[in-house]
Amino acid sequence: MAFEIAMWHIFQFPLCPFSRKVRLLMGEKGIAYELQTARPWEGEDRLFEMNPAGRTPVVRETERGTVIVDSRAICEYFEETVDRNPQISGTAVQRAEIRRLIAMFDENFYHDVSGPLLHERMKKRLVLRQSPDAKILRESMKLAHDYLDYIDYLIDNRPWLAGATMTLADLAAAAQISVADYLGGLDWSSHEQARGWYLVMKSRPSFRPLLSERMEVIQPPSHYAEVDA
Amino acid sequence: MAFEIAMWHIFQFPLCPFSRKVRLLMGEKGIAYELQTARPWEGEDRLFEMNPAGRTPVVRETERGTVIVDSRAICEYFEETVDRNPQISGTAVQRAEIRRLIAMFDENFYHDVSGPLLHERMKKRLVLRQSPDAKILRESMKLAHDYLDYIDYLIDNRPWLAGATMTLADLAAAAQISVADYLGGLDWSSHEQARGWYLVMKSRPSFRPLLSERMEVIQPPSHYAEVDA
């Protein structure tokens, strides 16, 4: 009898922060995955057939054909089905704190920082063939400071963003931050606690595959993939 | 010995679709709550002290002072702590489908329909003292059709949005839709399945307190609170 190994495919593109969060979670939990490129801005049928919302990431399991859509639904799914290395852990109040921070980075940080950077530095270059708007870049870098300040504050009070252990909040924040950092949108000076926390995150084996990837003609700054302070 | 009853306060405003979702969930689960008005656009210290992201809803329990932030974190919290009438139920795959639809209405529908309607019809009237932009209103009403089409399609195939039972997906969708409907952004003609589903939702006891509320000078269309077809 053949022994079938479930294999997950992640439909994503290298600078999708939500796909990065899912990849980090799967890496931490030791769930094997293969990457499939999906570019939401090209309106491919394949992506829309799996996800009517037309967004990345989507994960599909090859054996049974199970398709899971939406990065938070995917993370909750793996958390419920794979016990190893729980990332939404603790009491109900602690789990709420983890999910609060996930929402802050998935929604607010993406809206204020990584989303505008992706639009100005990736979409305008690859799709619209326009130059980035310097005013929008400055505004997103200014807002990024507030988030790094908030991480400084959290790390002054806790070992990890949501409390005593590393959780999905750290992975969600690091995923968004890694995209902003790739696109040159972060100034780490005067953010020692945030910088120290992020260096630890970058050093994790789950992070290595992300740091070595490049998005076509767009190059990250030299410090992007460095894991030594 | 005094017998203390835990009481939750919800910090919200009447047309906040995310607060409506939380109120519907608490209503369905039989969790008592009192309303506290919070207006994110006024930048009140009280809201920002509880939620650095400055958003509604926030819930606070009076006895222990527990504060839970972010509408999805709040719903997961009550789902984990109150067993009665589960709203994120079933297998892991079914739970993922519920969460996919919650994300679609919380994120996509809000971005395309209820968010622009709130900006044009509420914020411009109450805060900015401007007239709504007719082009944006037309575009959001056009996009609303696509979502009502999708609900028609789901209800053609399932009794409820996510499957065989009512879930948080129905509550999240009805919460967003009720705000769009209040603001006159929905044309229900040619959406019989969606209309039938929404009439059932409006008839639930959990929905009644929402339908009777009014947001200051802004009045809903006459059909808004009707529960008879």
Write a structural description.
2 copies of one chain form a homodimer. The first copy, chain A, starts with 7 loop residues before the first strand and ends in a 17-residue tail after the last helix. Chain A has 8 helices and 4 strands; from the N terminus they run E-H-E-H-E-E-H-H-H-H-H-H. In chain A, helix 1 (17-29) packs parallel to helix 3 (71-81). The longest helix of chain A has 37 residues, at 92-128. The first copy, chain A, has helices at residues 17-29, 45-50, 71-81, 92-128, 134-157, 168-182, 192-202, 208-212; strands at 8-12, 33-37, 58-61, 67-69. With 229 residues, chain A is of the alpha+beta class. Chain A folds into 2 domains: 8-81, Glutaredoxin (3-Layer(aba) Sandwich), CATH 3.40.30; 92-212, Glutathione S-transferase Yfyf (Class Pi), Chain A, domain 2. Chain A has a 4-stranded mixed sheet, covered by helices on one side. The radius of gyration of chain A is 17 Å and the shape is globular. In chain A, 53% of the residues lie in helices and 7% in strands. Chains A and B meet through helix 3 and helix 4 of A and helix 3 and helix 4 of B.
Name the descriptors.
Glutathione-S-Trfase_C_sf (chains A, B); glutathione transferase activity (chains A, B); globular; Glutathione S-transferase Yfyf (Class Pi), Chain A, domain 2; homodimer; Thioredoxin-like_sf (chains A, B); transferase (chains A, B); alpha+beta; four-stranded mixed beta sheet; 229 residues; 4 strands; Glutathione S-transferase (chains A, B); 8 helices; Glutaredoxin
